[in-house]
Structure formats: C-alpha cells, structure tokens
Amino acid sequence: MSVFPEVGDAMPAIALDTPEGGKVSPADFAGRKLVLFFYPKDDTPGCTTENLDFSALQGEFDVAGVSVLGISKDPPTKHAKFAAKHGLTVPLASDAAEGGLSDALGIWTEKSMYGRTYMGMERTTYLVDAAGQIAQVWRKVKVKGHAAEVLEAARAL
Questions:
Q1: Tally: H helices and E strands in the chain
Q2: From which residue to which does the signal peptide run (predicted)?
Q3: What pTM value is reported for the model?
C-alpha cells in the first residue's frame, strides 16, 4: 500500500500560489471535474508543448465541464511570464512551498541525469472527479497526445 494518494482517494486540499497573487486549492473545484497536470519547469521544450496542448483544448475541457490547472515548482512571477510569452490559456499555479501538493502526492522525487542526482517534478497528471476523488493518474507522462488522452478520459468520467 502506498503512503501517497491513489485512485479512489481524496485529492489533498493543499493551497498553491497563482500568478495573480492569490491561492488555489483542489478543494476550490468541488462539484466540478478537475485535471491537475504537474510538469517540471516553465519554458523548457516538453513543458511548453504540454502547456500549449492543454491550452489548445481548453475550450473542449470547458464544454466537458472540466477545470484544468498546470502546476510546477516555478514561482508565480515566472508562470506569468511563461503564460504571456506562449499565449497560454490554461491557468497555472506554483507549488514552490516545501511540503506542498507535489510532496503530498509523492511526485517531487529524486531524479538522476548524467550521473547527478537532484530533486525534480515527475511529469504526472491527475483526473479528479466532482466529489474530489482521484479518478485516474498518468505517471511519467509522455507529452505527445497526452492532453487529448486526458480530455477523452475526462469526458468519459
């Protein structure tokens, strides 16, 4: 049994910082389906593509009654610049605080590259039902086609 929330568990209601200076929590979306996509870093090729893909489908998520929130450890000011630079329509939130949502979900994890270990975000997406329960999890996401796959799963929920 995992110590981290899994399918069927409640999504932790941990607040995140928004680029507008406010706070947002998964609990704020009660009564509505929610997609939380966690990505490593603003303005890197894969993360930019993922954010553009979710933004391109924003209208379809809206029609399906699904809120979408992109999350990384980048500070809110960097999110604002990233969103403006690429014309992103999906709202972003910062999970910079230690003990934040990505820590609670177990996706802020040790990674390694070129023999160096470091802490980083595991690219992961959560689909949360209207009751706040985790309905589906995609771990170690491959970006190509992912946003469309999540949209189909959200429509079917």
A1: 5, 9
A2: none
A3: 0.95
Q: Region of 132 please: left (phi>0), alpha (psi -120 to 50) or beta.
A: left
47 is an active site residue = yes
How many C-alpha atoms does 81 have within 13 Å on its Cβ side? 8
Q: In which domain, by residue range, is 94 found?
A: 16-147
Q: Which residue out of 16, 47, 88, 141 is catalytically annotated? A: 47
For the stretch 35-49, pLDDT in tens is 999 999 999 999 999
In the block, which residue shows the tokens 């870093």? 41
User: What CATH number did the domain enclosing 93 receive?
Assistant: 3.40.30.10
Can you tell me whether residue 154 is helix, strand or coil?
helix
46-91 pLDDT, tens digit per residue, is 999 999 999 999 999 999 999 999 999 999 999 999 999 999 999 9
CA angle 59, 60, 62 (to 5 degrees): 65
Whether residue 6 is contained in a domain is answered as: no
In a domain, 108, yes or no: yes
Let me know if residue 49 belongs to a domain. yes
Number of compact structural domains in the chain: 1
